[in-house]
Amino acid sequence: xxxxxxxxxxxxxxxxxxxxxxxxxxxxxxxxxxxxxxxxxxxxxxxxxxxxxxxxxxxxxxxxxxxxxxxxxxxxxxxxxxxxxxxxxxxxxxxxxxxxxxxxxxxxxxxxxxxxxxxxxxxxxxxxxxxxxxxxxxxxxxxxxxxxxxxxxxxxxxxxxxxxxxxxxxxxxxxxxxxxxxxxxxxxxxxxxxxxxxxxxxxxxxxxxxxxxxxxxxxxxxxxxxxxxxxxxxxxxxxxxxxxxxxxxxxxxxxxxxxxxxxxxxxxxxxxxxxxxxxxxxxxxxxxxxxxxxxxxxxxxxxxxxxxxxxxxxxxxxxxxxxxxxxxxxxxxxxxxxxxxxxxxxxxxxxxxxxxxxxxxxxxxxxxx
Length: 369
What we know:
By secondary structure, the protein is of the alpha+beta class.
């Protein structure tokens, strides 16, 4: 039997975001009668206002000339999803506008060329882009020849319910962390000898080592791409790797992100003075908001999504989509150079791989694979 499509994966207009969040959290829904276009216009205005407030503290730098805003958009050609509920197909239709999100990144001090004198060893556009990764370095050949590469598109009706899979228990606590501009993404690295928590996958413990973001999302659901994707990278004692991936849509503020937003503003304000790869202490960061119970997630075996594209990575993609504001999304990508603000690798062929599904309420709903 086809796997159910979660209601929160259905494409929605921006004006419906607060309603979807309220449904997920059990909160009341306030009346919102504004049309999708008006709401998107208001969101763009809020983002521009954010940078106007930030500009006085950063525009004194002489390293970077002013540049026009960068427009990043992504979406899906699909206008509807079909889901199975109680053996009955339900179609969730949406307008074409719902399939497109707009993320406006406005910067006062952008570089025409990357500030890093050494430069990254790969990129996302042109001759350094994903189509050429395999030939950029002998160590990157797996990016071109690998058969179990990531990310992938998750076709929810083809995922296989696996009764042997367990709940994704994550015991994250408080971490002493540093923010790192890795040139190609912004990451949060865990400092000190003790990991701030771990995850259990198929009976093996993996310790959290670092997290980083991609925009737009790398994994897609039924062809739908989201504004952001968070990767939580864990390693085991024997060197194996598992990643917990969380997708984001634009909506209410993300409580976890508020803890590092001022550090990101500082990283952005430093401009070319900031040394790439050098950690900026973020202090103690509370990871509790990222351990919310996942009653539904997808698992498959893939690879790193950046060179050298090492395979045998166990991916766990949460079905429940989190939210952050447009301002937060912009602040997160602003420290990166312009050519790395669109830092998602295209989806890769599944090549017959099975995507397994954990669903806490599968038996309760009397569904069968």
